[in-house]
Amino acid sequence: MNAGAAPRSSPLSPGTYWLTRFVLLRLLGIVYAVAFLATARQIVPLIGSHGILPLDAYLERVSAYLGSRGAGFARLPSLFWLWPSDAALLVAAWAGFALSLVVVLGFANAPLLALLWALYMSFVHVGQDWYGYGWETQLLETGFLAIFLCPWLDPRPFPRRAPPAPVIWLFRWLIFRIMLGAGLIKLRGDRVWRDLTALYYHFETQPLPGPLSRWFHFLPRGFLRAGVIFNHAAELVAPWFVFWPRPARRIAGLVIILFQVTLILSGNLSFLNWITLVPALACLDDACWMKVLPRALVRRAEHAATIAQPSRRHAVTSWAVAGLVVLLSAQPVMNLFAARQVMNTSFDRFDLVNTYGAFGSIGRERLNVVFEGTDDPVPDDQARWKEYPYRGLPVDLSRRLPQIAPYQLRLDWQMWFAAMGGPGQYPWTLHLVWMLLHNDGGAVGLFAADPFPGHPPRAIRAVLYRYHFAPPGNPEGHRWERERIRLWLPALTTGNPEFQRFLANYGWLR
Known about the structure:
Layout: H1 18-47, H2 55-66, H3 69-75, H4 86-104, H5 110-126, H6 134-147, H7 165-189, H8 191-194, H9 202-205, H10 213-217, H11 221-237, H12 246-266, H13 272-280, H14 286-289, H15 295-306, H16 312-328, H17 330-336, E1 345-346, E2 354-355, E3 366-374, E4 386-387, H18 410-418, H19 428-437, H20 441-445, E5 459-469, E6 480-492, H21 497-505
Antiparallel strand pairs: 1-2, 3-4, 3-5, 5-6
Helix pairs in contact: 1-4, 1-6, 1-13, 2-3, 4-5, 5-6, 6-7, 6-13, 7-11, 7-13, 7-16, 11-12, 12-13
C-alpha cells in the first residue's frame, strides 16, 4: 500500500492529531507488550515465593516499617498487596501482555489503558531492585497521559472524539523534561560530557552493548566528539523548541527522534529509547504523518475527523488532568534546575510526574562479575571452574554481541551495577549463589546456559574481570579481551556455617 498526500480539502491539517494519536498509541502498546513479556518470563525467579528477592518477605518488611499492610498499600499502591503469590504475578503479567497486543492491533480506550497502567504500576512498586530504573516510571507517566488521549469507551483506532489538545501539550511537556533532565545531569555529572570525550568510553562500558556497539567504539575520535555534540543538541537545545510554532517544533521532534534511533542502534538500553519516542511523536501533527502513512489509513482518519463530535466531558477531563500535572510538576522542575540534580525520581506515590536522566557519569573501564562453579572437592584456583554465561553481559570472549532491547534482562542489568560495588551492597547475590548451589531451575534459567545440567556444583565463586573490546581483525576473532582483577565472592558451599547465618538473617534460608 503506497503512501500518498491527502487532497487539499482534507479535514486533517497541521493543527490536528488524529494520525499522531494512532501512531503514538501503537508504539506505546508495543512498549507495554515488551515490558509485560519480560516480566512474565522473569518475575517468578526474581520476586516469586522462592525468588531471589521474595515478594512476601518484602511486603512484610514494608508493613512492619509503616505499621500496617494498609499503610504499605497507600505508600506503594499495588494489586499484589491483595494477592501476593506466584500465580498472581504470572496472571497479571500475561494479562498485561495480552491487553497490550490489543492496543498494538489498534484498539484502545480509557479503561483499557488505565488497566495496563495499574497492572504495570503494581509490578514497579513491589519489584524492588529489579524495577528501580527510570524507564519504569517513564512508562507509567506516559501510560497515565495516554489514558486521557482516548475516548472513555470507544476503542476504535479512529473514534468520533478528536485527540484533546491539552493532552498533546502534556506529552510535549514530558519530552521536554526527559530530554533536558538527561542533558543537564550530564553537564553537571562528568567532565567527559563537557570536554566531548564521553563516547570514547560509553559504547564499551554501557550496561549491555549491542551488535553495533563495537563498531561505534572504534569510530575515529572526531566522529565520537561530534556524537557528543549531537547528544547535547538533542538534549539541551531541541527540548526548548517543542513548544514553538510548527516548523521549529517539527524540527525539534525529528532531532529527538533521530537521536533516540541512534541510541537504539548503538546499545541495549532496555525500552528506554522506545518509550522516549512516544512523547516525542506529539511534536508531529497530521500534516507530517499524511506524507508517510498509507493512503487508506489517512482516509480513515479523514472520515473520523469529518464526523467527529465534541465532548464537553472529554474537554473538562483533559483540562483537569493538565491542571493536576501542573501542580505535580513543581518539585520536578525545581529538581531540574537545582545545583544537586537528582535523576529518575518520583515525587508522588502514583509516579504521575517524575524526573529523568541517564549516564550522568561515564565509566572509564568495563567491570564484570562472572559466577563460576566447580565439582572438585577442593574449590581453590587449581580446581576446574565452569562459568555461568549471562544472556546479555559478556563472558565468552568470542560470542557475538546480542540484540536484546527493547527486551530487558533484569539480572544482567543488576550485575552490571554490582560489578561497580561489592557483595555488601548487593546481598541478594549471595542468595543467588545459594540457589545456584541447589540447581534452582528459576535462578539457573536467568542465565544463558547451565554448566552443571542435572546436578548442582559443589562450590560457587564470583570473579571480577576487566573487559575491553578486542580490536577489529584480531587473529583470534574475539569480540572481547579481559583480565582478572580479583575474587568478588570467595568459593561458597552449602555447608558453610557463616554463609548459612548470613542467609538466615535475611530470611532466605528456607
